[in-house]
Predict the structure.
Amino acid sequence: MKDALALPQSMLVLGGTSEIGLATARRLIARGARTVWLAGRPSPALEQAAESLRALGADTRTVGFDALDPASHETVLGKVFAEGAIDLVLLAFGVLGDQAHDERAPLRAVRVAQTNYTGAVSAGLVAAGALQAQGHGALVVLSATAAERARRVDFIYGSSKAGLDTFAQGLGDALYGTGVRVMVVRPGFVRTRATADLPREPFATTAAAVATAIELGLRRGAETVWVPGVLRPVTAALRHLPRALFRRLPL
């Protein structure tokens, strides 16, 4: 994928059992991707995910990866890139946490922050360095609309995504002109297994819809993608509401 607007022939999904990550892999395989690496904690679920992509015709491999072990990231990603060029790295791992419980258990809140932010900073920098060394590629980072403004119901998760979002934007600026680009994806509420027990929010979307938006973003060379697109103006309006009024909204 040396043309910045071309779709990838090879990809690495950090968070190999992520529903969004797998939906994106399936979509890109249908568009010509032939090599897929799924990076995640070794488990039957990871192997099942790999088998499902092999059934679509992709050469799919797995590699052990733990977001909470930054010291291992350079070694793990180095093994992947040593096997051949990677056109796209999709940073798809993350945890929602449980706001009500995590507020009363600081170590649980720290785990959310370490996974969603610290682990992503480490993996993102390692991946960016590897892409830059090969001279081309894209890093797609799954952020969230929750990163735009703290909400009472999920400010621990939202703050971790806010840090990730700012990091990814800055990394994109740092890589500008190198042949490597960063695309930040900001989905709203995504209906997945992880959110099945949560109340459905306005403008809810699906993993397949996020995958479609990622493909379209890659095609047009976007730096930021909102899913669904209507969330861009909605979130902009909410971001500038006076705090006293924002607190009164049913968010």
Q: What stands out?
A: The first strand starts at residue 10 and ends at 14. The CA atoms of residues 13 and 166 lie 21 Å apart. The mean pLDDT is 93.
